[in-house]
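Wed. Picked up where I left off yesterday with Site-specific recombinase XerD. The coffee machine is broken again, so keeping this brief.
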Amino acid sequence: MVSRTPDDLQDLLVSWLRELAYLKRSQHTITTYSKNIGLYLAWAREHTEAPSLSRQSVQTWILAMMQAGAEPSTAGTRLKAVRGFSRWLADEDEIPTDEIADLKAPNVDRKVVPALSDEQCAGLIDACKGKTFADKRDEALIRLMLECILRAEETILLDLSDVDLNTGMATVRRGKGGKGRRVGFGPATTRALDRYLRARKTHRLADLPAFWLSQKRGRLSYTGLDRIMKQRGAQAGITDMHAHRLRHTGASRWVMAGGSEGGLQAAAGWSNRAMIQRYTASVREEQAAAEARRLNLGEF
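Structure written out below (tokens, as returned):
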């Protein structure tokens, strides 16, 4: 058993990705891990003479990445992939020891993701008003993600058999951590989904099991979903629009409407209640500000 070069590790990466597929990690996760490890290996070929995956090498890479302007959250995500790869290599006796098992990610400033206002949500829906396939699909997509507080990957992995308009229920087969759940939606979303499904029947790939179809290809991809969100956000005058804002907004709207925290936790597929505070931070700040103005404690 010897220290591995970046080229050795590039070959072993293929085996680890097969292992992840066996463990039923999502394709998005596998692709992301492959990309992030590839970035490290490319850097290691050029910038270090230390054994690849040594603690010194990985720490230097993280520092260089942040000095180049990467956010701590980005550095942490990339480190997570490399750390998982290193753990597997050690378990498989492909490297002498896992030197980065306890290497901590950089501290991350927790940013408050602002929830969309009701006016902005309505603007997104208005941006989809039209009779084209894309218009009908995008309205249904936005409504379902908002109301059901879905993750992006959960959304694009839905199949036709997972959505029941008669009961107003959708089944997420594999949420984060491989956990499935059922989520409910109301009449407005049902109507939008029905309009989309009628348009979908005319798609040349209508026989595919995927619920969401791109205009020219098959199942809508993560990149395609992101493109839709940016396009519709721009049409609605919303800057920095991305799919995850719909999840934050859905959680905030749940709280504002008086929904229970237990119900929100179940609907969003969170394993602990701490996520409720994180995802509803912006709306709670607004509530606190409104309460402060009502209390008027600055008056003496």
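Quick read: The chain has two domains: 6-91, 118-291.
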